[in-house]
Design goal:
The protein has one domain: Ferritin, core subunit, four-helix bundle (Ferritin), CATH 1.20.1260.10. Helices cover about 70% and strands about 0% of the residues. It has five helices and no strands. The protein is elongated and about 55 Å long. The longest helix has 30 residues. By secondary structure, the chain is mainly alpha-helical.
Length: about 170
């Protein structure tokens, strides 16, 4: 049985993940407009990942017979001062999401909701990877803000996306 408090907060997190999706989509479009195809592709992939995270949470609630409420999503920031700003925003976003995920894990633990605690474990691992990846990208973009070809080369080499993770929770609709 999923704790009611956990289910309510997970519904809130679904909206947070969809907001992250929209923000990454706005970043991708910004880089696409600058004709930086590697950066654009990186952020399109990130947007897709965030959508998948939301749908993993939806599937968990469906699997546990909990109501799903897709809440309101705030507008994404879509104009940036330079090529560094979207990545800095993305890193701040990943740090915020990490805190949200940790809070969900804590709620599951406080409610003695073992299944939900186990479900959140994958997201904790994922957030470590996301923050590390975005921190590295911010360092590269900051260092090369005046040489976008170096940024593109780095992303082409390092940011092509990983293999699928067999331990990931099921995605609703997949």
């Amino acid at each position: 049985m999923v704790a009611e408090r956990f289910a309510q907060q997970l519904n809130t997190q679904i909206a947070n993940e969809l907001a992250s999706h929209n923000q990454y989509l706005a970043c991708a479009i910004y880089y696409d407009a600058l004709v930086l195809p590697q950066m654009a592709a990186f952020f399109y992939r990130q947007a897709s990942e965030e959508r998948d995270h939301a749908l993993m949470m939806v599937q968990y609630l469906l699997d546990t017979d909990q109501p799903v409420d897709v809440g309101a999503v705030p507008a994404a920031i879509s104009s940036f001062e330079d090529v560094v700003a979207p990545v800095a925003l993305a890193l701040d976003q990943e740090k915020r999401v990490t805190q949200q995920i940790n809070d969900l894990y804590r709620i599951a633990r406080e409610e003695i909701d073992f299944a939900s605690e186990q479900f959140m474990s994958w997201f904790i691992k994922e957030q470590v990877e996301e923050v590390a990846s975005m921190s590295d990208l911010l360092a590269v973009v900051t260092r090369n803000r005046d040489d976008v070809e170096q940024i593109e080369e780095y992303v082409a080499r390092e940011g092509s996306g990983g293999d699928s993770d067999a331990t990931a929770p099921k995605i609703a609709g997949a």
